[in-house]
């Protein structure tokens, strides 16, 4: 691994800032969850804009409130949500690479459009991997900037590659138009094994209702509120839970499971949101409305391959 040096110091921590690489895979048999960025789209673009390879750790900033001081010149990019980011009090251009000079203050205020922003540094952040990943999962005490699953705190320092670029990469990639997270559009769902156990009325409502994002939402999952869905299954043997699984507990209100989900669950499922649908859902503020749209496996796979193809 390339030598690491101090890159940014934390002068105000904000509610939640976590270091995330692509995630921790191959360990769910141990009861260890995936972690990684809940908005894969924003995280991938932040890294891509500064020339980083897929999987390079970036900082996930939720709600804002974070303030960092550069300890050296760095090329950075912020993608994902607009959290009112500024450099030395002046608005920071997001979804494009910029140069942060030594001593400058990078601050995130509060949500303007979306919920989670991603900060990438050319060359990448550096931390000690745990189970082959630096993805931070606070519940399990794994990964992150310190290897123990902690969110950033005042006084922490973020390490970067000693080979980190100080200037914006020449010919840096340009993303498509930044998403409007206030208009998330239909979220693609792959129907699941228990879909036939739900009543016809419930299925009609599931796919023809505007669901509201509840305030009970975090990196583990997002509860949706709307009409009560009814399932003929009263009990189930627990099954493995994948990203985006839409469980329906007895109260009939769906729970969409995200990156820090449990590894098994026993509630019936409508199916699973695609990774890109999960990304859009992760940017929704409480009270925002979303719609569920069934998609075929072929369509979902083609969309994901097209997305991943951008990043090599």
TrEMBL record:
InterPro entries according to UniProt: CT_A_B (IPR003778), Cyclophilin-like_dom_sf (IPR029000), PxpC (IPR052708)
Pfam families: CT_A_B
Keywords tagged on the record: ATP-binding, Hydrolase, Nucleotide-binding
Keyword presence, Hydrolase: yes
Top-level taxon of origin: Bacteria
Gene Ontology MF terms: ATP binding; hydrolase activity
Domain spans labelled Carboxyltransferase: 29-311
Record's protein name: Biotin-dependent carboxylase uncharacterized domain-containing protein
Protein's organism: Halomonas korlensis
Species lineage: Bacteria, Pseudomonadati, Pseudomonadota, Gammaproteobacteria, Oceanospirillales
